[in-house]
Fold this sequence. Notes:
The structure holds two protein chains of two kinds. Chain A is of the alpha/beta class. Chain A is about 25% helix and about 30% strand. In chain A, the strands form three sheets. Chain A has a seven-stranded mixed β-sheet, sandwiched between helices. A six-stranded antiparallel β-barrel of chain A has the order 1-2-5-4-3-6. In chain A, helix 5 runs parallel beside helix 6 (about 215-225). By secondary structure, chain B is α+β, with helices and mostly antiparallel strands. Chain B has one domain: Sandwich (Jelly Rolls), CATH 2.60.120. Chain B has helices at about 1-10, 20-25, 110-120, 120-145, and strands at about 30-35, 40, 50-55, 60-65, 65-75, 80, 95-100, 100-110. In chain B, strand 4 (about 60-65) and strand 5 form a beta hairpin. In chain B, helix 1 crosses helix 2. Chain B is globular. Classes of the chains: A alpha/beta, B alpha+beta. The interface of A and B includes residues 186, 191, 192 and 214 of A.
Amino acid sequence: xxxxxxxxxxxxxxxxxxxxxxxxxxxxxxxxxxxxxxxxxxxxxxxxxxxxxxxxxxxxxxxxxxxxxxxxxxxxxxxxxxxxxxxxxxxxxxxxxxxxxxxxxxxxxxxxxxxxxxxxxxxxxxxxxxxxxxxxxxxxxxxxxxxxxxxxxxxxxxxxxxxxxxxxxxxxxxxxxxxxxxxxxxxxxxxxxxxxxxxxxxxxxxxxxxxxxxxxxxxxxxxxxxxxxxxxxxxxxxxxxxxxxxxxxxxxxxxxxxxxxxxxxxxxxxxxxxxxxxx
Amino acid sequence: xxxxxxxxxxxxxxxxxxxxxxxxxxxxxxxxxxxxxxxxxxxxxxxxxxxxxxxxxxxxxxxxxxxxxxxxxxxxxxxxxxxxxxxxxxxxxxxxxxxxxxxxxxxxxxxxxxxxxxxxxxxxxxxxxxxxxxxxxxxxxxxxxxxxxxxxx
Lengths: 279, 153
């Protein structure tokens, strides 16, 4: 630990020691994405802020960072995971009763306090909706009429959280869906989230953006084009997060250690860094 | 005529044009309503109309014998439909289908081309706006090509 100030970013328990959580529910969201509900076997972790992530151990396989998509008052955490590599495939493959090890919560959160009373646009692509879900829930609870949500996916079956999308719309938020390709029965847009942003005749003062990096870069620039100040745009970046506490350095991006200084960062702090080749 | 003029004057594609040029365009534009499911354009057909969409949603569709028709982009209120009319050989490159009931301005493309050839300021405006449309669709096509939501390669 470098200074007393670091205490503020450290989880309450020993940061490298996984806390056992048991899977109580598994919900298949898409063909390769699953949401797990986990409950602590004994004492749980500290409360999670919207946008923070956990390090998740599949014992005997490996450990990966996963953003928390929701927490419940009963202490359960929901993790939405895409089966990509060995560890994520093992996590997705767990069944009710299995135990995973969780560390955290780690990282920065979406600046919801700064968004209060302002017109917020949330832009999510693919699995990027998961780290934004709690932030959207909070904004819908506060003032849905000042919230726009733009969600992109490859195809309709890959759109996450259909129930939430309907609920946010019913509450008064403006939810815009777009996919890369569709049949004629699709009622949303076909095209990029950037194209949707450019077409929206809506006033925004602040933006949260999360998704594939190419989509975030294009989306953040489109939001700037809509008149939002770069310092009011926040993106969620992911690198090879390992320790979660800024010690191992594997997640370095410029002067930032994203496991600790991110994943949620200000756009004007990282825009130039994302233009560096071979990073 | 008033509706046509008003629709042209307020459509983003024609923003910034003088009243005189709006009047010129209005002389060879007409309002068209099309029910959902009807075709606006078929690949290979003469592109002799340029559409400015006032209300509704149209789909740009790719059709091939070995697959189902696929909507690869949607066009919405305030957008335009068609660039093939501006580029030789003036034949549609894609199918366009009405996904909702559409309310459109249809502009006689040969007359607009002729006007652009005479009035270069109008031609520059139209070319610039069409380039903006094409740039946006090119970016979207590139994102689709790299499968931005797929696994990193």
